[in-house]
Amino acid sequence: MVTELSEVTIRPAGPADASAIAAVHVASWRGAYAGIVPDEYLASLDVDQREKHWVESLSRPGARTWLADADGRTIGFATIGPCRDEDAEPGDLEIYAIYLDPETWGRGVARDLMRTMLADVPPGVTVTLWVLADAERALRFYRRHGFSPDGVERRDDIGGKDLTMVRFRRS
């Protein structure tokens, strides 16, 4: 377990970062969604598959991914881009992901990533995100950063389990 982090650096990500992002993505899902998403699904998450996804994502224009690096490794990432919701207004943004290595939770890294992303958002632009209704830690985090549920929910099948996703909004 990481006891202390050296200085955390937030920087834009590129395709060369796909492997590091994939490793954090899988570790974070396994830590954050244990007890919510089926264990078999979490165990089946594959870093190599995620890496392929991230190489493609980071090569396309539109979204912007930020990395948090410390102690010579990537410990977190966050991605923001155009809102994909049917009811989005032109120019609305959506946070697609914000994940950390579970060993670094509670050390302010997610806060730094969120502040960096939001500092890049023009005044008056609405930002949304989707979060699992049962992910209490994430719900608290988003509320602390000025997001609140807007009353829109959807059902997603994740690993064979029907789960409720809640949309949060910040204007």
How would you characterize the overall build of this protein?
By secondary structure, this protein is an alpha+beta fold. The chain has a single domain (9-170), classed as Gcn5-related N-acetyltransferase (GNAT) (Aminopeptidase, 3-Layer(aba) Sandwich), CATH 3.40.630. The protein has helices at 18-32, 39-44, 47-59, 109-119, 136-144, and strands spanning 9-12, 64-70, 73-82, 93-100, 127-132, 148-158, 161-170. The protein has a seven-stranded mixed β-sheet with strand order 1-2-3-4-5-7-6, with helices on both faces. α1 (18-32) packs across α3. It is globular and about 40 Å long. The protein starts with 8 loop residues before the first strand and ends with a strand.
Short synopsis of the structure:
This protein is of the alpha+beta class. 32% of the residues lie in helices and 33% in strands.
